[in-house]
Design a protein that fits this description.
Layout lengths: L2 H15 L11 H4 L3 H12 L5 E10 L6 E10 L3 E8 L7 E5 L2 E5 L7 E3 L4 E3 L2 E2 H5 L7 E11 L2 E10 L8 E7 L5 E7 L5 E13 L2 E10 L7 E11 L18
């Protein structure tokens, strides 16, 4: 027997004699969980299918001591990177159209001759930014890191930190809670570049749309003003093929309302 083997045997006997148990370290939770990017991608697929579809959107903004404000939109989505938002009401904004191509967002108003470029961060109504409706996916826009697992009301959630890969997205950083069991988005906290919490979003009222269970209501609340919040309600989601020509700046003025 080689000396190395004898030495190893002595160590085993010594450990056993004194009741010492030698254990390998248990794998960390992150080693057992799916990769962070995979979790985000699966949650994205629940929020917004990677298909051509149309969906009705109603946004209501509420502030303490003020009457609620409401706006309605028809949203056309082609794949992951093309979105049209048609404003149906209020009446004085009807005909206003937003077009997202990649991370570029353009606005067309009936009283101007050409579309103008605007920011995804710009407010649409209340706590709702343009990017909250125009770009529903996180995959590709953020680098994801799995921070921990957390229990909320007996369910287990992946908690992820999403950091923007560029300055042309809606938020600099997002903390994101995704249910471990089925990858349903539960909650997100959105942060500015300074680290300030801008707002919190809760994904709720899951119901079947376009063939699977999806959140039909997003509730966005202001962390500094109690009772100040906005809701985004999705309805009448329909999978529907649409031609590429619709998703061009030249076609914005031709869209029918």
């Amino acid at each position: 027997m080689r000396s190395g083997t004898i030495s190893d045997l002595k160590n085993i006997i010594f450990a056993g004699f004194f009741g010492i148990t030698l254990l390998f370290p248990a794998p960390s939770f992150s080693a057992l969980a799916p990769p962070a990017d995979e979790i985000v991608a699966k949650a994205d697929e629940i929020r917004s299918p990677q298909l051509d579809y149309t969906v009705g959107v109603t946004v209501v903004s509420m502030k303490p001591g003020a009457e609620p404000r409401e706006a309605r939109y028809e949203v056309l989505v082609k794949g992951k990177d093309k979105t049209i938002i048609k404003t149906l009401s209020p009446a004085f904004e009807r005909g206003r159209t937003l077009l997202m191509l990649g991370r570029d967002l353009w606005a067309y108003l009936p009283d101007i001759s050409k579309p103008i470029r605007i920011s995804l961060q710009q407010r649409l109504l209340g706590e709702v930014a343009n990017g909250d409706i125009a770009r529903a996916n996180f995959s590709g826009d953020y680098k994801a890191v799995l921070l921990k697992k957390e229990k909320i009301e007996k369910a287990s959630y992946h908690v992820l930190e999403l950091t923007a890969i560029g300055d042309d997205v809606t938020y600099n950083k997002v903390l994101y809670w995704v249910r471990s069991e089925d990858y349903r988005p539960h909650k997100a906290e959105f942060y500015a570049l300074s680290g300030r919490l801008l707002k919190t979003c809760v994904y709720g009222e899951y119901r079947e749309m376009a063939g699977r269970m999806r959140p039909s209501r997003l509730t966005l609340s202001d962390p500094l003003v109690k009772g100040q919040l906005s809701t985004i309600d999705y309805h009448d989601m329909k999978v529907k093929g649409m031609p590429e020509k619709l998703f061009t700046k030249d076609y914005m003025k031709k869209l029918k309302y």
